[in-house]
Amino acid sequence: GCAAFMFNCLGGSRGKSAHHRGSPIFTTFQHYDKDKSGAIESAELEKLMKDLGLDVTPPKLRAAMRSLDKDRSGKVEFEEFYAWYKRNKQLQEARNIFDKYDTDKSRTLDGGELKKLLTDLKCGVSITEALTAMDTGRTGKIEFDAFLKWHTKRGRREVHMVFKTYDKDGSGSIDKNELAQLLEDLNEESTAEAVEDVFKKLKGKGSKVSEASFMKWFQNQASAREALDVFVQYDEDDSGSIEVQELENLLKDLRIHRPANEVIAEVDTGDGKLQLDEFSRWYSKHRDLDDARQAFNRYDRFLRIV
Q: Is the pTM of this model over 0.85?
């Protein structure tokens, strides 16, 4: 993923506009209503949960059905799905990206549309690799569920990179000191009280936060996602760091008139390039610049709900 900007896909209230055939919510509902019954049943919900990268066990599936099926009809009707969809940023994000590049409105991505998506999002994946991963039926068309599954896996890999960066002691969990460093790098409040509040939201046990809990929390943190997205986009050689030329490209796009070496010297710990934590520290302090916001709006490379 990369450069975030405000985009509202919901377009209206729970009334007529929500049910409109062309709305992203209704399109997604129809896609997973495989038997066209007008509701999503247990097996169809299981498919959606798996596409979102969730570990689906029978108890978890039953719990999900109970949570969504408010009227206890045994199935998820559109109004119930709508309420859940509005809270699920991961699903909205994938829907928005898919719809943006589905330029012929066929509800599938063909080779040309997929190639443009991969190029704009700088995924570092060839069209052949992407088709192999998503077009399992070899039809030359990508359905939304296949795209959602692929997009979710990529997002989880990126968040894993953040987790590893801040798990400084390699313990496989984030402690309060490591969490405080992340918040500080994101230019967020990092007092002991603020860290404790975030720690509670992360449902940390003892003094540690698991990667699974961290991943759920991180997905809804706009500033953290934005910094990661920009880092991934401009790390063009996938080296895990931003080097001088890559930073020059970013500064040019942001219309920030400073030498790249000067910026690196400001936060670099000594290797002449920016690691993710160093980049996050610098970027988060500059992300509110009007020029940066305008530049990213112009570059319109990604669709996010933030």
A: no
Q: Tell me the per-residue pLDDT of 61-112, one tens digit each, with 9 for 90 and over.
A: 998 899 899 889 999 999 889 888 877 777 888 888 999 999 999 999 999 9
56: which 2 tokens? 């689906």
DSSP reduced 3-state for 247: helix
| Phi-psi group of 270: left, alpha or beta (phi > 0 → left; psi -120 to 50 → alpha; rest → beta) | left
User: Rounded distance, CA 51 to CA 152, Å?
Assistant: 7
What tokens does 284 get?
């988060």
Contact 283, 250 (CB under 8 A): no
Q: Is 245 helix (H, G, I), strand (E, B) or coil?
A: helix
Show Cβ contacts of residue 148 under 8 Å, excluding neighbours closer than 6 positions: 51, 52, 91, 94, 98
221-238 pLDDT, tens digit per residue, is: 766 777 887 888 788 777
> Which bin fits 55, alpha (ψ -120 to 50), beta or left (φ > 0)?
beta
Distance CA 95, CA 110 (A): 16
